[in-house]
Design brief:
This protein is an alpha/beta fold. It is built from 10 helices and 6 strands, in the order ααβαβαβαβαααααββ. Helix content is 45%, strand content 12%. It binds S-adenosylmethionine. S-adenosylmethionine (SAM) binds next to loops.
């Protein structure tokens, strides 16, 4: 399967269209589907199992998972670190101001395709993010992560399957309703991009279909993780018809899953 482009990854997409795109994503997974809350809940469970003191949300976009985690009393005492290749700095600032004791964003660009060093006490979460790396380059990223000490949880809200691909067309509803549900600040921008010149809903559906096609099957994940983790660290793959969770334990921690 060739690595088809996604609009999210293109630097020429105007920032106002990009902002609207990410709001649709947030609306889909926070209000039309309970996905972000369920990811946050699972992240809290894994962090507790692993004894993690930090949860890093990589490729965080609008940081929806950190937002849910910050509001959860079970994360009291943890540090929450949203970051992205293209950080949504104003949203990270708002989150940090609302939860100064917990949220500590990285405001510089963080490229997770590069080898990064994280402490054993960190739980690294990727939500709808790792598939942005071409399939051929993913093993090198997994190998670099496996060389580190941190626990990792990869959450993907779709699968490479016909039912999953068909279901993403349902995102047209939240995309067209965004101007109604998105609040007053930015309303003109949303009306422009979703109603007057509705390029962003079309871009969103394209990206969602391509995201499905980029997903790895359970077998592909298992093969890659057996290779990079060897027998020293356990991993878990949990798959539904429209989502997948892949976790592996911190180097010295208990098994994740
Ligand atoms: C589909 S969005 C998901 C955003 C967010 N995690 C969510 O679930 O709403 C993918 C995100 O991954 C980020 N991203 C893509 N490649 C990346 C890389 N190499 N390093 C860091 N972030 C990356 C993009 O900037 C974008 O914010």
């Amino acid at each position: 399967m060739p690595h088809l482009f996604e609009f999210t990854d293109q630097s020429w997409v105007p920032s106002s269209a990009r902002a609207t795109f990410f709001e649709i994503l947030d609306l889909c997974n926070s209000r039309f589907r309970d996905y972000n809350a369920s990811v946050a809940n699972k992240a809290v469970e894994i962090a507790a199992e692993q004894g993690a003191d930090t949860i890093v949300e990589l490729g965080a976009g609008r940081a929806p998972i950190t937002r849910h985690l910050a509001a959860d009393p079970r994360t009291d005492g943890l540090t929450l670190v949203p970051c992205d290749l293209k950080p949504h700095a104003h949203l990270y600032r708002e989150l940090e101001a609302a939860h100064p004791d917990k949220v500590s964003p990285i405001y510089e660009s963080v490229d997770f395709s590069q080898p990064l060093r994280w402490d054993a006490g960190a739980l690294l979460i990727f939500c709808a993010a790792l598939h942005h790396v071409p399939s051929k380059q993913r093993p090198a990223i997994l190998a670099a992560l496996a060389e580190g000490d941190a626990a990792v949880a990869v959450f993907e809200p779709m699968r490479c399957s016909l039912p999953s691909i068909v279901s993403v067309f349902g995102a047209i509803a939240p995309a067209l309703l965004l101007p109604v549900l998105g609040g007053t600040s930015g309303l003109v921008r949303r009306i422009f991009w979703c109603w007057l010149f509705p390029a962003v809903p079309a871009m969103f559906i394209w990206d969602a279909v391509v995201s499905c096609l980029r997903q790895w099957s359970d077998q592909q994940w298992r093969r890659q993780l057996e290779e990079v983790l060897g027998s020293s660290r356990t991993f878990t793959i949990l798959s539904g018809w429209h989502s997948q969770i892949v976790t592996w334990a911190a180097r010295t921690g208990a098994a994740a899953g």
